[in-house]
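ok so for the tutorial part 2 we go from a plain amino acid sequence to predicted structure tokens. step 1 is just haveing the sequence, like this:
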Amino acid sequence: MSQKKNLLLLVALTASLFTLLMASIDQQMVEAAPFKYVSNLTGANEFPPVVTDASGEFKMQTFGNSFEKIHFRIVASDLSSSVIGAHIHCAPAGVNGPISVFLFDGLNDRSTFRTRGTITTEDLTGACGFANLEDMQASIINDNSVYVNIHTLDNPGGEVRGQILLK
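step 2 — the prediction. this is what the tokens look like for a chain of 167 residues:
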């Protein structure tokens, strides 16, 4: 009978350890899951709205449980003129806000615009009060108050814009 009890105890202990291990793995997978964000860029989203055929998409993603880097990509087409800047701003829809991150600052002389890169805490301007990238992401998720826009020669205030949303 003692062997039977020991065997049952061993089985129970093994099952408990397996359960703890699986819970730990599940937690690590949740922590390591990337956060993905998207924004559909249109002239109608600008404030005031801009009449344009242009449209675009902005995507960004974190990797792992680190908020130290965010990778982004912007694609826009049918822009009215050369791109002179692309930025992340902080403000809700229908309000213009200060620049939080410079994504592109230069001159792109095509009606199609593409750029990609990596954002770090050092890229934050400080104008929005974000101490780090985690603060910016919290504002996206909790307040829907972060947007992207693309500025062109014909529309220096912005030709297309979109609020950044958790995907």
